[in-house]
Amino acid sequence: MKKLLCCAAFFMALAVASPTWATDTALINGINMPVVAPGNFVGPVAAYFPAGGLFSPTNPGYISTGNPATIYSAQQTVTASAVALAAQALVNGIIITAATTNTGTTYVGSATVTAGNGYALIPGQSVSYGVSNTNAVYIIGTASDKVYVTGN
Q1: Does 54 reside within a domain?
Q2: Which of 59, 61, 96, 138 is least buried, going by the fewest C-beta atoms within 10 A?
């Protein structure tokens, strides 16, 4: 009961601190949510309502509320040297799959990937990463093998 009263007092304090919130509406997973306008709060309460609004791209903690309209897919040939995947901006990350026809193991990792420190993909195996660009991922392995890359 004590916690409930504490929370209720906090939200009542918010209402008193700014009885005239300027709000917009953001569509989040099909539900209209209020977007608190910047500059309505002062003091410690302002930390909970960042400039630009809770669901605004100008908020450093912003999480995208929509999915990309397209899916990225590509094939890349593996080489005996570490090579970055072709650059493509992403929102949700990628899946990398070694072709089933590969003759060797493909290793996936950062720019310093080797057969000794990379994530090993045998033919037909996949791995996923939550990266914002495909060029953050490097591959190395048997020359002329292929990987398939998809993401959005």
Answers
A1: no
A2: 61
Domain check: are 79 and 146 in the same one? Answer: yes
Q: Counting beta carbons within 10 angstroms of the beta carbon of residue 150, is it exposed (0 to 12), middle (13 to 18) or buried (19 or more)?
A: middle
Residue 146 lies in a domain: yes
Q: In 3-state terms, what secondary structure has residue 14?
A: helix
The b-or-e profile of 8-25 (16+ CB within 10 A means b, else e) is eeeeeebeebbeeeeeee
Do 100 and 134 lie in one domain? The reply is yes
Are 125 and 79 within one domain?
yes
Identity of residue 102: N
List strand residue ranges (DSSP E) for 47-134, in order.
Answer: 72-77, 83-84, 94-98, 106-109, 119-121, 126-129
Q: What residues make up the domain containing 8?
A: 2-48
Q: Residue 38, Cβ neighbours under 10 Å: how many? A: 16
Q: Tell me whether residue 108 is in a domain.
A: yes
pLDDT in tens, 12-52: 444 444 444 444 444 444 444 444 444 444 444 445 545 54
